[in-house]
Amino acid sequence: MLKRLMLIVNPMAGRGAYKTNFGEAMQALSQGGYAVTLFFTAQRGDATRFAASYAGDYDAVSCIGGDGTLSEVLAGLMQLDNPPPVGYFPMGTANDVATTLGLPKNDTVAAARRIVNGTPHPFDVGAFGERDYFAYIAAFGAFTEVSYATPQDQKKMLGHLAYVLQGMQQLPKIEPIHAKVDYDGGTLEGSFLYGSVSNSTSVAGIVHLPDTMVSLGDGMSELVLVRDPGNVAAFAELATAVLSERFDSEKLVILHTKKARFRFDFPVAWTRDGEEGGAFADIEIRNIHCPVKLIF
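and the corresponding structure tokens:
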């Protein structure tokens, strides 16, 4: 008997590249024992609404899109008591989740075969405040606006280069942010250029944390804080170290925690999985231990 697969498609992701070999991908799913029902998104929030409303009727749910699309699907599944396992066709720009999981990127046929032959693995989900969720990262500070500030037409034409160009435009505007951060067992206070709570070895497709530092289903998130280095030269040195995967700077804090509370002097803008996440002066972020399973 065929298993029922709900496939949510974001037609804007990956410059519409999902159309390449799409028929072959669907054939691979069919031959692998899946009867596929397609849902196409038209606007932000559709994937969450589809997953919350219909995923409970399927044996598995999958999505074609970027990390933001996957994030929306997981947010919808968090509204279900017994969500089905999730497959992922990574078709975005950064594809941080795919990098972390070792999934094939921008290749629908390979992704379909991975779903057919893969195994569901428990996966932690982040809770952002009371009602919002994220798949792998919530962040504030330097460069976090790049992913959603970059115009869509530039993303289509330039791909990852568009993010780099947009980031260069933000360099003169970087300001340290005073924050008090409570985490499991302690509190940090100071001026920070960047802060995040994540569950990924890849951030923005540029920074990579060691595999030994990150576990996707241990109930713990990685709290990363970058203290204000004080001058441009020190900032450049710190950036070079991080991009070279050297994390021993005294200006860089990396901790493991189940939750973190951030308090600022004014509302600070956040991103969640590369999408705009709102501005908050006081926000708590929690790790929800393995509420879903990802197929890989």
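(Above: one complete record from the training split.) The chain has two domains: 3-118, 133-289.
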